[in-house]
Amino acid sequence: MQLLSETKKWRVESEEDAVGLIQKMKEQAGANGYEVKKSEYTMRTKKSRGEIIETWWVVSITFNYDIGD
């Protein structure tokens, strides 16, 4: 049995952190035996009484482990 791919999600506090995380995972890909198949980030907010009280970003990265030798 072999894992072919998986999608992981992280919560980060800023857009810069989101971009940095995606770049870091792409840089480490070859050395760690995967490729980044898809990556994205979206801003999320928490509201209370119509007012935004918290903002964060969710980073989603799909890793492909079936990259061949």
Number of strands: 3
Overall mean pLDDT stands at 95
Strand arrangement within the widest β-sheet reads: 1-3-2
* Topology pattern, helix = H, strand = E: EHHEE
Cα-atom radius of gyration: 15 Å
Low-confidence stretches: none
User: Quaternary status of these chains?
Assistant: single chain
Provide a descriptive summary of the structure in words.
The protein is of the alpha+beta class and 69 residues long. Helix content is 25%, strand content 52%. It contains two helices and three strands. It has helices at 15-27, 29-32, and strands at residues 5-12, 35-48, 51-64. The protein is elongated, with a radius of gyration of 15 Å. The two termini are 18 Å apart. The mean pLDDT is 95.
Task: Describe the SSE topology.
Blueprint: E1 5-12, H1 15-27, H2 29-32, E2 35-48, E3 51-64
Antiparallel strand pairs: 1-3, 2-3
List its salient traits.
alpha+beta, 69 residues
Q: Concise description?
A:
This protein is of the alpha+beta class.
